[in-house]
Amino acid sequence: MTAFRKPQIALTSHAVPFVIRAERASDVAMREALLDVCFGENRHDRTCQRLRDGRAPAAGLALSAMREGELVGTVRLWHVSAGGRPALVLGPLAVAPACRELGIGAALMHQALAAARARGHEAVILLGDAPYYARFGFSAEKTGALMLPGPFESERLLAIEFQIGALDGAEGMIVPTGAALAKRRVVRPLQAHAA
Ligand SMILES: CC(C)(COP(=O)(O)OP(=O)(O)OC[C@H]1O[C@@H](n2cnc3c(N)ncnc32)[C@H](O)[C@@H]1OP(=O)(O)O)[C@@H](O)C(=O)NCCC(=O)NCCS
Fold it and tell me: What residues pair up with 70 in beta bridges, in sequence order?
């Protein structure tokens, strides 16, 4: 008879599971609060924000990490033209300070990159710390001749190709190409008509 050994699971306070799922409209307030905590209130002045202003994220490429009903991580990808080459820009990636070092950032990255690849996108670019993003395959090898619409440190402009050569010769400004955000309909209160 085969004896099955029970898997050993250490249930520490850090072992609360999290799930990664598509971002929902109901996540927006929690996501904004998380980004304020992670990047500060001046986050809207950051150079990469110029690639996102007034645009919708790429279809199916906005993810939330949820833990016990709370949003604890976020990542989005955006359509751009990288010196004429179609690509995506990834960001912001953020994980709540209390939930870091649990693999949530890596899970968001792996899931976002797999989804982008599955949708046929050929390259992803981001502005970030090479020591963190190198583990996902990002490097500055193909980004040396690319620019962003604002100040940035060139060694932090990184890319990964899903299609070999997708960024070969890419040169010039990275500009947003995503769909414009749907404007909110302004609902005016009904006015009483004078008799
Ligand atoms: C960067 C961030 C998303 C990582 O999230 P996380 O859930 O803690 O990441 P993971 O648990 O998957 O990975 C942790 C590992 O990444 C490393 N790491 C985290 N930030 C790093 C950085 N900036 N540079 C190098 N390594 C980093 C940790 O040291 C740890 O290393 P280890 O696996 O060798 O122990 C999170 O720290 C964060 O939200 N930071 C503030 C916002 C930010 O800087 N976003 C990225 C924009 S560049």
Answer: 67
* Protein residue with least CA distance to atom 43, ligand 1: 94
Please name each of the domains of the chain with its CATH number.
47-176 (3.40.630.30)
pTM over 0.85, yes/no: yes
Q: Ligand 1 center to residue 133 CA distance, Å?
A: 9
Residues 92 and 47 sit within 8 Å (Cβ to Cβ): no
**What is the position in ligand 1's atom list of the atom closest to the CA of 91?**
47
pLDDT for position 103: 95
**What residues form DSSP beta bridges with 128?**
none
Could you please report the per-residue DSSP string of 104-164? HHHHHHHHHHHHHHHTT--EEEEES-HHHHGGGT-BSTTTTTEE-SS---GGGEEEEESST
Is the pLDDT confidence value at 193 over 60? no
Band of residue 184 on the pLDDT scale cut at 50, 70, 90: low
